[in-house]
């Protein structure tokens, strides 16, 4: 596939608000050993992108300084050592960065085929959320069929994916959201109960059910002691973000006496081998769910690549339900 040497990309001019995202001419990446270059059709927009833009989440030293952690498109070039992919293959992929661009490079083992029945637009929404939910809910959190699972922020990209995946795996799913409209959307996806946190105490709601066996939280701050109270004995709390702050005072006596587990992770800093293992698991266990319709990306809105700032205003408004994508080439 013929490629030019320069491309249009979205650069973070300086740390700040959404308006610091600006289109620029940028060199087209060249694949190294084990890497592929993707001609991007659609790029997913995620909160870590907004944190990076604000100067609060630096990319790893080896990653592109451009934002964008997931994309879909067509393989444009393959590096040495890549055996699975060929030029012209349609893929979606987890990225170390650089997705807000016409071309992006990533490890070949972090790419997955576009599931049957999905468009490239929908496929761009899969990698970041599916890698995150699988690794934290099912591997780190150990969710099993029949267990009570609480995911906060059920209307987010992570939340809508976690609700569907956990329900498909046989768990009882509970969630929180900030409006009746969002709660209704969560129920439609398979949540047994959606709690409007502005009107109801999720701790009381979960304790009335016997407590959550597993909680997935991205709020942090004051939610940590409340999550501990909402857990059943021997329950697990997995922390993946802290939208309201990373520090809080916690009495560990309850953690010890009730044998609770508090853990967490972030996806981006993990090694290539770990991410490749997650990709293999997803293709084996989750892609069949997508292809039979048990899991579908929930789409909120789309914006042109040049309008990336508008997409960031949208995600930071917290008014969205599901995923936001950038239209780069179409698909």
Automatic annotation (TrEMBL):
InterPro entries the UniProt entry points to: ADH-like_C, ADH-like_N, ER, GroES-like_sf, NAD(P)-bd_dom_sf, Quinone_OxRdtase_PIG3
Residues annotated as domain Enoyl reductase (ER): 16-326
MF terms in GO: NADPH binding; oxidoreductase activity, acting on NAD(P)H
SUPFAM superfamilies: GroES-like, NAD(P)-binding Rossmann-fold domains
Top-level taxon of origin: Bacteria
Keywords: NADP, Oxidoreductase
Name of this chain's protein: NAD(P)H-quinone oxidoreductase
Organism: Aliigemmobacter aestuarii
